[in-house]
Every structure is written in C-alpha cells, then in structure tokens.
Amino acid sequence: MFTPMIDQAISFFMLNMAWGLDSPPVHSKYYNQHLSTHGFHPVIATCMTALGMAGVANICMDIGLKRESTKWYADALKMTNKAIMDPEQVTSDNTLFATMLLGVFESTTNDKSFVGWANHVSGSASLLRIRGRQQFETPAGRRMWLQVIGLLTLQCMGMGEGLPSFVHDYNKEVDKWEDTKDPGVRFFHLHIATIELRARILKNKLTDLRTIVDRALELDVGAKEIITDMGKDWSYETEYCDLGTPGVFATSYHIYPHLAAAQTWNWIRYTRIYLHDLIRNSLIAGFSTSPPIFAGMEYIRLLESSTDALYRMQADIMASIPQYLHDTPRVPTCYTNDPHQDPLTAPISPPRDIQNHPSTTRSASPASPTSPFSRLGFIMPPSSSPFDRLPVIRVSGGYSSIWALYIAGATPIATPESQEFIIHTLLRASAEFGINQAKLLASTLKLKIESDKREGTGMAWHGGLGGKGGSGMGIAPMYMPMAGPHLSREDG
Q1: Is residue 255 predicted with pLDDT exceeding 90?
Q2: How far is CA 399 from its chain centroid?
Q3: Half-sphere exposure (Cβ direction) of 298: Cα atoms closer than 13 Å
Q4: Beta-strand (E) ranges in 431-492?
Q5: pLDDT of 262-289, one tens digit each?
Q6: Which residues fall in a compositionally biased region of kind Low complexity (predicted)?
C-alpha cells in the first residue's frame, strides 16, 4: 500500500511483461554502475516505469496515473532519441531494447491508432540495420533480432509490403547461431516466406494462379512439418464442455503446457490462414476463367480441404483463448520430468529428443484455482556472459495472441457469430489485461466487417481477372482496412 509508485510500476512490468532477466553478476561493474535504477540502464528503467505505470493505469482506469505514465514515456523518448544520436550508444543493446519497450507502450496505451506502434517498430528495424552482423554474437542480440523482425513482419503484412532486403541478408547469420530445429525459429522463416509471397501477389509481381497455389501448398507443408516435429512437450489437450460455457466458443477449448507452446501454435495457425486464403481464392478464381485454369475433381477436393483447414485454424485459435483469459477450469501438465527442476529456472524450450503427436484429447477435469499457464512458460534461460541487465521482454504472449484472434475474425470465411465472439474477447483482453491495442483491433475488425458489407465481399472471391492470373487484391485479402482512424496519426 505504501510502496512508491515507481517501484510498483517496475514490479508490474516484471510480473506481466517480462519472462526473466539477462543479468551480469551483482558484483560486476556492469551491474553496479546503475545501482540507483536497480542495476538497469537509466533509459531501460525509465521505459519500464512508463510501461508498468501504463499497465496499472489501464487496469485501475486511473486517469491521473495514465497522465503520469505519459510523462515517463516522454522522458524515455527523449533519452532514447539522445542515445540514437550518439555514435556509440546507437548500436548498444540498451538503445534497441528501449525502442522495443516504447513500441510495447504504444500497444498498451493507444486504442486509437497503430501509427505510433508502427513508427517504433520501424525505428527498431533501422537500428538492426545499423548494428550490423556483430549483433548476432550475443544471445540477447540474436533474441532481439528475432523479436523485432517478427514485429516488422506483422507490420509488413498489414500494409501488404515485403520485408527490407537487409533482413534476408542478415537472416543468413541467424542460421549460423540459432537451432534450426526449434519451432519458434522455424516459424520465423515460414512467416517471412509467407509475407513475401503475399507481397508479390499484391504487387502483381506474381499473377499465375497455378504458381500461387503450388507455392502456398509448399509453405503449408512446411507449417505442418513444424507441428509434426514439435513433440509432446509442445502438445496441447482438448477439453470438452457444454455449449454456452462462459468464455468458450462452441464446445471445446485447449490447455497448453506453457506460453511458448500456445503462442507458437497460434503463430502457425494464423500463417496457415494466410496460406489457405490464397489457395482458396486462387482456386475459385481459376474455376471462373474460360476455359477454367483448374479443372477436375482434384481441385474441387483441394478447395474443400482448404476451406476445412481455414475453419479448423479459426476454431483452434478461438479454442486457445479461454486459457489466456483465465476461463479454463484446468491447468496444464508440467512439461519437465525432472522433480528437482526449479520451475522458475526451467528452460522455455522443452527437450528435443522426445517426438510424439502434437495434440491429445482428454475429458474435462476438476477445477483448479491455480494459474492458467505453468510458470515454466514465462522463463527463458539467461544469456551467457551478459554485459547489460536486460529484461527478457514478453513481446509475444498476450500481444501476439490478440493478433491471431484478429486474423481469425478477419478471414473471409468468418461467420457473424465467430466475429461477435472475437470482438467481445478482444474487448475483454483490453479491460482485463490493460492491452489497449486489443480494443483498437476490435474497432478495426468492426470497421472491416462494415466495409465488407458495403462492398459485398465475404466468403466469395472478388477481384478482376486478367490473362493467366487474378487481381492481387482479390487473391490475397487485406485483413486490415487500408483507410480509417486506425491509420490516423492522431493519438487522441
């Protein structure tokens, strides 16, 4: 009750927005040079305070505290801009990390526009280019590369753009250091390949429908291989319940063993939605040509299976949400078999030598009052020999889950009932977890639904055809409306 608000803000940040710490030994000069800010570099401590205060302000609906968090944000922005102007600080982990935290601040506070968040993502990406290849020499540098490029990929998807060329060049360095069998790393490359395919189609650089279908199917095989190779420690369980169970769409929901599993599954699901929307729209467009580009039962069956995959991916994303919102009566099974393993230091990546089918089915179990996610999923192993005290930011988790949920509502096969559930769930995420970007996504989805109604779009393919291919905008749906208040530069 009497704890200073600054300490409360940092505590809120560490509990809700971080997995753990990269931390040098407490006796090292790297730790002790910033003792006044708990061992954190001042710009990091300022960002953490702003972000923590914003989270508390959102949940408590405290206008005064929100105003105070904005002041801290302004200070953090000034400090970050000053560091960017310094030829030495511009390439430091602290400066890059500060830009990432400023982006999370926008996700946490801004319920009106994506522009502030997008600007910070672009700023982080610019720093990656300046930092060069030496950034891959440390675990923290490689992790921040993967996180920032993941966010940049989302931004490019929303705008229908491809990734900058330096990303493809530097990604070759990632393969030298990272475990290419890790599901998260494999998804990282799958996501980029999918966004590049969409961009080529939208820019009309790829118009041949057969080529589009073949490439999308090839990427989808890669997505399914990631799932197959995950092993049982990444598996989820399906619980069944009565229709109308609060917080559950339809009659089932999922239980995941840890956060990394839940988010990786949903990453793959929304990427497969991208791919099967391309396949489905290409097939429908090809059936409409004279003579048909696609003829025969093979393509009719492919259309049916692709449509089924879309419904299944959408349903699975919605089934993953109750655990996030604490609506599930069961908790996950611990994925470590070591009885001596401390749950606060267990690695986020499960053992690689266990292979099994990725999902299992169970009947409902008695309710349990404990956390919906095992604490195991919130901790990442510390980096070796860190030079700076850096929180391991949870840029995914709740933030990436709301994007998956949005895509589930924006896909052309979405029904009014599923969209209503998704909008309601996004608003809950905003109110209960203080993620205002969820509220923004809800309003953007409403805008898209109204726009689709006016234009008469929906489950049917719409778009002009020419030669051997189709209009890029018709084949690759734009999930984000390209005009509206969500793209305004006005924050208020």
Answers
A1: yes
A2: 6
A3: 5
A4: 465-466, 469-470
A5: 888 999 999 999 999 999 999 999 999 9
A6: 358-371
How many residues belong to the chain?
492
Q: Is the pTM of this model over 0.70?
A: yes
* The amino acid at 370: T
End-to-end CA distance of the chain: 32
* Spatial separation of the C-alpha atoms in residues 50 and 309, rounded to whole Å: 42
State the Cα–Cα distance between residues 254 and 236, nearest whole angstrom: 6
- Structure-model confidence comparison of residues 459 and 65, the more confident one: 65
What is the mean predicted confidence (pLDDT) over 444-458? 85
Question: Which spans in 86-114 are helix H?
Answer: 93-109
What span, in angstroms and rounded, lies between the C-alpha atoms of 423 and 427?
A: 6
20 touches 380 (CB < 8 A): yes
DSSP string of 233-263, one letter each residue: GG-EEEEE--TT-TT-STTEEEE-SSHHHHH
Residue with tokens 């025969």: 296
Rounded to whole angstroms, the Cα distance separating 171 from 221 reads: 22
List residues bridging with 361 in a β-sheet: 238
Phi, psi values for residue 413, rounded to 5°: -85, 0
H runs (alpha helix) in 1-114: 5-16, 29-32, 42-60, 63-85, 93-109
Percentage of residues in the chain having pLDDT higher than 70: 76
Phi/psi of residue 255, nearest 5 degrees: -120, 120
* Greatest C-alpha distance within the chain: 76
Contacts of 386 (CB under 8 A, 6+ apart): 22, 23, 24, 30, 138, 140
| Cβ proximity of 223 and 269 under 8 Å | no
Quick: pLDDT tens for 228-250. Answer: 888 888 899 999 999 989 999 99
d(CA 299, CA 297) in angstroms, rounded, equals: 5
